[in-house]
Amino acid sequence: MRDVDYSGSRWIPPARPNKEGVLSVVPSPILEARDVNLLFHTGGETLHVLRDVCFALQPGEVASVVGPSGSGKTSLLMVLAGLEKATSGVVSIDGTDIEALDEDGLAIFRRNNFGILFQNFHLIPSMTALENVAFTLEIAHPTRPYADIRRAALDALAEVGLKERAGHFPSALSGGEQQRVGLARAIVGEPRILLADEPTGNLDQATGASVIEQMFSLARGRGTAILLITHDLRLAARADRTLSMNQGRLEEVTVNREVMA
To answer: What is the DSSP secondary-structure string of 39-50?
Structure first.
């Protein structure tokens, strides 16, 4: 993996020999950021949150981003998801420039391509685990029969080991269980990219590690790309690649294990 070039504005995938010894190029990135900047003007001052960020994520790859609080990690996730508009630069998903989409088009595009998992579980207290997961599909597919939505939600809960807890409200679930409901909600729409912002921040170490392992296993089984924002270096090291963010810049790249055949 030392032949991966991150020095330019576009990530260039390396040519690698297959089992027959023939060179082949790895797939194009599913997500790419090129020279992305994010600035806020407040109180007569300019806050430079993201600085010339260049980043690429392959289909099925798991990348983690670490760095101190205030370094721009969450802002990076927000820009990549189209929840915050970059001041300059390009964010593209499988070749689609999300900056070129209008508000409605971006909302639909995000719904069809992204799953998002937050540190705070953001479950609706008055809804059961099943209803929390199903609600995502109801919004995305308002004309889809509820029987199909319910079946898909139950399948997602089964994937995270919570099918038997489908009828329980969040108050009756542990923190780890609530986050697993959040994971089921994030994957129920079969997203191509899963963005996770400190998903273990409110969990103890053992529970957090279990949730991360389950998230990685599910996503890899589906070929989903993952970007994990975390302060926990041990969890970050479970990703295929770890990037370090400091003062709005992605600075170093560490390959944790071989990911491409």
So the answer is: EEEETTEEEEEE
Contact 8, 57 (CB under 8 A): no
Indicate if the alpha-carbon torsion angle 88, 94, 100, 102 is positive or negative: negative
Residue entry with tokens 């260039």: 12
In the chain, what are the domains?
58-86+101-255 (3.40.50.300)
Question: Is the pTM value of this prediction over 0.85?
Answer: no
Q: How far is CA 40 from CA 27, 46, 93, 102, 115, in A?
A: 35, 6, 25, 21, 26
What is the C-alpha separation between 195 and 202, in angstroms, rounded?
Answer: 17
How many residues in total does the chain contain?
261
- Burial of 72 from C-beta contacts in 10 A (0-12 / 13-18 / 19+): buried
The 10s digit of each residue's pLDDT in 121-177 is 889 999 999 999 999 899 888 899 999 999 999 999 998 999 999 999 999 999 999
